[in-house]
Design goal:
The protein has 343 residues and is mainly α. It is built from 11 helices and 7 strands. The protein folds into 3 domains: 178 residues, 3-Layer(aba) Sandwich (Rossmann fold), CATH 3.40.50.300; 69 residues; 65 residues. Helices cover 55% and strands 8% of the residues. Helix 2 packs across helix 7, helix 2 runs parallel beside helix 10 and helix 8 runs antiparallel to helix 9.
């Protein structure tokens, strides 16, 4: 995982001898999940998965989240677990941009606290920065709550990649030899049956969209005031520029609303299929239990007419239940329980 242009595909090609598309610009070449060629490391067959960044140039963040969720849910529902997550970060970046911070946050939320111990943050592109400056930058990233620190507190590690195959192999070894893990997003989608927007990552994206919409609303409110001033001053050129800016922001607002609606409607096929299987199994189990319960009643319960009780002193008989029999009230309770289970 990691932002666009951080070197994910390059890392995979280097260590697996694959030929995934590599970008030489800020335009993303990975807009879908890509799988490396299987390769051997320490006697084990390894496959790497390349995911698009959440700053992809050809897809929206909702689209990227859907792509990642679909793959994760599909793998988990078929019993295939990941051994870990690599998150790549350019140490040559002199500041953590909003895009980088957002990608870091999605990495943490997709993994979840329990699975972060199966993740490694890989700092790369050390050749593009002074070693002393890079080390100081790395230390700051490790200690700031907004950057690497939350992941490190849950067991993630930071390792450096020097651009060689040997370095890439040494980074992979701890994960290859670790126990497989279940990511938070997989539990949310498959085990808990949540929709994408109900997951932690989905909720975060909705919050981001809501904040952007609020910002645009404030900008339009300001523009409306400026437009009134331009009208009163008969500033036609200023009025035209303000109207163009208002139209641009309104278009952005419409785009954000469409993005929000798309996110709310996302359905993960693998998770839906798994939920249907679980429901079918539960129904089958309930029917089997009801049938077994009915057979038990038929085979073990005998309803006998209550024998006549000895007359009392006044000669009146009092019905009672003989030992070992079940009265009608008891049987009705069993029947009702059986029918309820079957329904």
């Amino acid at each position: 995982m990691g932002p666009t242009g951080v070197g994910k595909s390059t890392f995979i090609n280097l260590v697996s001898n694959s030929d995934l598309r590599v970008s030489d610009s800020l335009v993303s070449c990975t807009d879908r999940i890509e799988i490396s060629k299987p390769f051997e490391l320490d006697g084990k067959e390894v496959t790497l998965v390349d995911t698009p960044g959440f700053d992809d140039t050809s897809k929206s963040e909702s689209d990227i989240l859907n792509v990642v969720c679909e793959f994760m849910a599909s793998e988990y529902s078929q019993g295939r677990l990941l051994h870990g997550i690599l998150y790549l970060y350019r140490i040559s970046d002199n500041r953590v941009s909003g895009v980088a911070a957002r990608n870091l946050r999605f990495y943490r939320e997709l993994c979840g606290p329990a699975a972060l111990a199966n993740s490694i943050i890989v700092t790369n592109m050390w050749g593009l920065v002074d070693a002393t400056m890079g080390s100081a930058r790395e230390e700051e990233l490790k200690t700031k709550p907004a950057f690497f620190r939350p992941a490190l507190e849950h067991g993630a590690r930071v390792l450096r990649h020097d651009g060689t195959a040997a370095s890439a192999q040494s980074i992979l070894r701890p994960l290859v030899n670790s126990k497989p893990c279940v990511l938070q997003i997989q539990r949310e989608l498959v085990d808990q049956g949540r929709a994408v927007y109900e997951t932690v990552a989905g909720e975060t994206l909705l919050e981001d969209l809501a904040r952007a919409q609020q910002k645009h609303a404030q900008e339009i409110e300001q523009l409306e005031g400026d437009l009134q001033d331009a009208l009163s001053q008969k500033d036609e050129e200023g009025q035209r520029e303000l109207e163009e800016e208002r139209a641009r922001i309104q278009a952005e607002q419409a785009k954000l609303e469409a993005e929000k609606q798309k996110l709310m409607q996302l359905q993960i096929v693998a998770a839906t299929r798994k939920a249907a299987q679980v429901q079918a199994q539960a129904t089958e189990h309930a029917h089997a239990h009801a049938a077994a319960r009915g057979a038990q009643i038929e085979n073990t319960v005998t309803v006998s007419p209550p024998p006549k009780a000895p007359a009392d002193e006044e000669g009146n008989g009092a019905p009672y239940e003989a030992e070992g029999s079940v009265g009608c009230f008891g049987l009705s309770r069993l029947i009702r329980g059986s029918v309820h289970a079957k329904a």
